[in-house]
Amino acid sequence: MTRTRYTTVAIVLHWAIAALIVANLYLGWRMGFLKGLAQFNLFQLHKSIGVTILLLSVLRLAWRLASPPPAPPPSLAPWEKAASTAVHWAFYGIMIGMPLSGWIVVSTSPLNIPTLLYHLVPWPHFPGVHDLADPARKAVNRAFDITHVTLAFGTLVLLALHLGAVAKHQFVDRKPVLPRMLPFVGGASRLEP
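The structure corresponding to this sequence follows.
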């Protein structure tokens, strides 16, 4: 007997992180249209959600390593399985890399604005970069700002690939992949003979 669905922990983390990523992509875009206190508050919220994504993503990666996902449906072609694996690991890279790059950008910013998560919890600067000499700090800031924006666009590409593949498998090919990750659809650890 093999497990056909992700575990409840994996499902909860998947949907929570997905919702936070979509919200933060919107906030990152929206911040560019604001000024003053409204922009500052939105920026603080963006940073707070980013740190939350980072922490949840590290937890999700640890969970995946401790509790591997169910095997792909046998009806998928080998290239589809390989593409799915590549996209999933690219998501882990983005889910961890984008918040880390944003944290480094904030830590090397000439504005030196402290981060207060959800207006409650002080968050430190990224170790080793805040106290760099000015030219090095500017170079690190520029490099990681470009990285952060590139990863944001990469996220949009991965989301399109991921959602397009799910829609193709579920609705065109009639391969039921969606219930594997949907909450409230049978037991999360349902077994198949």
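Strands lie at 2-3, 115-117, 121-123, 191-192.
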